[in-house]
Amino acid sequence: MSIPDATTSPAGVEILDATPVALGGPRGLEVTRTLPSKHRRMVGAWCFLDAYGPHRLAGSRGMRVGPHPHIGLQTVSWLVAGEILHRDSLGSRQEIRPGQLNLMTAGRGISHSEETPAAHSGVLQGVQLWVALPDATRNGPPAFTQHAQLPVLTDGGLTATVLMGDLAGAVSPARCDTPLLGAEVTLTAGSRATLPLRPDFEYAVLVIDGAVTVADVPVQPGPLLYLGEGRTELRLAAGPDTRLMLLGGEPFTERFVMWWNFVGRDHDEIVAARQAWEDRAGGGPYGVVRGYDGPDIPAPPMPITRLVARGRTR
């Protein structure tokens, strides 16, 4: 499905095309990135979205992302198939499997690595998301939590797992620093369902598998369907068996700079965060990730022009 970035559909929504990216370098695992896009940077506080797989790992080492730093954001790891081993500078060592949520809050600084463990099922599929932290909490202490049990809604052919926030009264235990929703929704072939939405939230849908009509717009895996604000419900009609991610949140009004793995507020903050990673002998503000068999990821060069803080659209 090839659709120009930020095409406006007849229903008034936007279809944001996916960009292929090699995770961790030219020979890295291929992912498709829909946030940030050319025209739209966010959905609520969701500011980054990669989808990957299904990748067959025979003859491959799978995911190999060496230690790297973050500030000012949360990382949200969600698997459909396979396993990922997370290590971080807090000393966390946690394998994630489908149906479990790994939530890392960078705050003022953390580093971590992600890799396919030596013993694995031979397939990998999932999504990696970032949440921008508001000014009130973005400089707080780093944290890591795994949530192995999450609330699940069922209604006919629909099953929804609430990763973050609240959907139809099902509330995730995961930390949210701004009003937010993240849910995985599966639909059996031919089923129809309607989900309640908050009109003060903006929403988007990413199809992982299958095909579905969302608010009268047909969607397949690849692009992100941005639905905007003001909706009180969402109508879904599946073709084959379908799995999708429903993302939403109160529009994020703070302006910020997102560069490499950092979410800051101005150019100078990003420069300082990068330099702290380059000067990290002994750990520095990002600590040390122990146990990963490979090098840290170096920071790329700063751009020749100053980075400018921007809002949720470009």
Automatic annotation (TrEMBL):
Signal peptide limits: none
Protein name: Pirin
Recorded family membership: Belongs to the pirin family.
Keywords for this protein: Iron, Metal-binding
Domain Pirin N-terminal: 30-131
Domain of life: Bacteria
Entry note: cofactor: Binds 1 Fe cation per subunit.
InterPro entries (UniProt xref): Pirin, Pirin_C_dom, Pirin_N_dom, RmlC-like_jellyroll, RmlC_Cupin_sf
PANTHER family, per the entry: PIRIN, PIRIN-RELATED
Binding site for Fe cation: 68, 70, 112, 114
CDD domains attached to this UniProt entry: cupin_pirin_C (cd02247), cupin_pirin_N (cd02909)
GO MF, one example: metal ion binding
Cofactor section: Fe cation
Pfam families linked to this entry: Pirin, Pirin_C
Domain Pirin C-terminal: 183-279
Source organism per UniProt: Actinoplanes auranticolor
